[in-house]
Design a protein that fits this description.
The chain has about 140 residues and is mainly alpha-helical. It has seven helices and four strands. It starts with a strand and ends with a helix.
Amino acid sequence: MNNYFSEHEHYTAIRIPQVIETSVKKRIQSGILNQEDVQRAENAALSAVRKYAQREICLSKALENLQTYEDLLFSSRDYSEAYARTLSERPWEKCDCRVCKEVGVEVIIFRGFNRNKRRGFHNLNYSYQQLKKERDTMT
């Protein structure tokens, strides 16, 4: 849940699994999920998060699209409160690290390997800065 670190708070990254992810792909192949519906909901969720970051849509619209995708894939899972906090507080805009400056909201989207790696670099930089502060107070 707390997989995006910041100086004062930790946040939950926004999970938007790819249709090609093994668990999703298997459910499509077995006929449990309709590929077109899943693809449409995935695209809508990604688009909504990006539009929200650009201030083109309101928070409730972004959360609605995320919840639609979550309900389709994981009917028992509800991260809406955590997602609302992450999105409304916009931690990627407050961060001075290179990753957040260059990729913006993409850093908090929990998705493919490259995105997760970027968030990992962000978190590593955060941890380094914390260690540096601690070391400086000891000297």
